[in-house]
Specification:
It is a single chain. The chain has 160 residues and is mainly α. It contains 2 helices and no strands. The longest helix has 83 residues. The protein is rod-shaped, with a radius of gyration of 37 Å.
Length: 160
């Protein structure tokens, strides 16, 4: 008797392909999250650097003002500069917030991808366990048939 193939073999292949696919998707999600974290860090660094530059200029201007080395025109330019610095600071803060939101979204996507990988691996393992039980049951039947055939062959033939 020819051994039968596992009847759910297409399902086994499908589940294995799904594990591979979800694992690739997880890899992409990890790369996207890492990229979002880098963009967030770059935006935060730009904000810190901009704030530090503005602070240095303010300190220098205050020192010059205290020494009396600034004219009224210098004070008007300083006021215009301060407005521009505040606008740039708000833009940098917005960029940091947007990068933070993107990073959070990418983290959620990565967690979703991890869950999907775990789910697909669990499904594949369940099918693998079913296949192992099916093979074991077929093996038991085969062994029982062989034992029956051996016992029939070992019986003495009755003479008539």
């Amino acid at each position: 008797m020819r051994p039968r193939k596992y009847p759910l073999e297409p399902l086994v292949r499908l589940k294995k392909e799904r594990v591979e696919s979800t694992t690739r998707q997880l890899g992409k999600a990890v790369l996207a999250r890492e990229s979002a974290e880098r963009r967030h860090e770059e935006a935060a660094s730009a904000q810190r650097q901009g704030d530090a530059r503005a602070s240095r200029v303010r300190t220098e201007e205050r020192d010059l003002l205290e020494k009396g080395e600034l004219s009224a025109a210098d004070l008007i330019r300083a006021n215009a500069w301060e407005v521009r610095v505040q606008t740039e600071g708000a833009e940098r803060a917005h960029a940091v917030d947007a990068a933070q939101a993107t990073m959070a979204t990418q983290r959620r996507r990565e967690l979703d991808a991890q869950a999907e990988v775990a789910r697909s691996r669990g499904e594949a393992k369940a099918v693998d366990r079913h296949e192992a039980r099916w093979i074991a049951a077929r093996e038991k039947v085969r062994e029982a048939e062989e034992e029956e055939a051996a016992s029939v062959a070992a019986r003495p033939k009755l003479l008539r």
